[in-house]
Amino acid sequence: MKFTEEHEWLRIEDDVVVVGITEHAAEQLGDIVFVELPEVGGEVTKDDEVCVIESVKAASDILAPLDGEIVEVNEALVDEPGKVNDDPIGDAWFFKIKAADLSQMDDYMDEAAYKTFIG
Amino acid sequence: MSETGALKQTPLHELHIGLGAKMVPFAGYDMPVQYPMGVMKEHLHCRAAAGLFDVSHMGQVILRGASYEAIAKAFETLVPMDVLDLPEGKQRYGFFTNDNGGIEDDLMFANRGDHLFVVVNAACKEADVARMKAALEPGITIELIEDRALIALQGPAAETALARLNPAVADMVFMDVATVTLLGQDCWVSRSGYTGEDGYEISVPAHAAETLCQALLAMEEVAPIGLGARDSLRLEAGLCLYGNDITTETGPVEAALTWAMQKVRRAGGDRAGGFPGAGHILGALAEGVARKRVGLLPEGRAPMRDGTQLFAAAEGGEAIGEVTSGSFGPSIGGPVAMGYVGSSYAAPGTQLFGEVRGKRLPLTVAKMPLVPANFKR
Question: Chain A within 8 Å of B329 (Cβ-Cβ)?
Fold first, then answer.
């Protein structure tokens, strides 16, 4: 599992990368009340804003961590955004991306480095 | 963390830290935005049982003069309310107006026999004290109380909880004020709040505030509630946040606050006018206004935050209004908002559209409060 400075996690599953937000991010955001997901089939470029999440307090964006194609989204989050607080690194993944270049994963932190990053 | 050094702390600061609150800067104070329970559960707990709020950042001000009558007549030169006829032991909502008929701050004032007790917003308190001093001294003395905390206990179980400390509070009704002994301390208690629920606001000597809060928090009905849930509770209750929903640029008629202006201060009343901006405000009452503050219920799940532009149609046309407060309403189970719309769009049930991230999403003008009030009349 890899982690971005934007508090996303990335997990390689078969030939796609599953993306979600970290427990730390979910805790910082507070109760999530709204999730807007990207279109399946859309081509994205690293750092594109692909999802919107809103907590009771504010809206935030989720950025595409890699270049590639969105191949699946977690529709369950639309009806139950609170899942992001309950199980951010399990059930509450946001989207799966077919990476154009998996070597972009190398830029990201491993778990130990992420833990240091969030202090 | 460098900023927090300059922030003021309330007498309950250590308690918040001990309770695991997430602290944020608010109106110059380091305040709890939420506790470990989280905004959503805190909100629902307050509507189901009782929530304890620290509102010590707000300004508590005492006005004294030769008599209540003298104080009331003086205060009426600053607010469009009937202060004189307010019975002893009663509180009222009000606001300071400016020469343009805008609102400088909103407040609560209480007739406490030999003095008027006024509670104003934290961000405005210095300006409010200066305004009162400039206008009313030397006949009236104005004292900002700095040695007392202010807490609110809100929710359907508030009476049960507080009555354990002094059964007399159960006899108070909405907007009553009284001095009540709680744990041996003289507390200034009002039956009022900012949540739409029954409850109390309690001014307590600063040194005794934590002990009182600990006693309340030890009761199973009571949980601490942060500013996050305070905001969603008041928004569902249709109550204005000064600085967002009412400002120096909004008048009381537009703001749908005319209920707070008693007849005696309106045209034809015995003490009509005589407050700043009276010409503008009484004119607006007579002639109507171009825009009105309304409740708004967005369809779907996307919150519409303050600043969201409102339109009459799904496509085209100029904006006809703007959201001034918007969030998620845990009791509604969906987004809630309030804002200003052109008066012809202000009828409950009117469908409008709010532009969120470039998309126009439907919403409906709704009667306020959005959640029924639960006061003890």
Answer: no
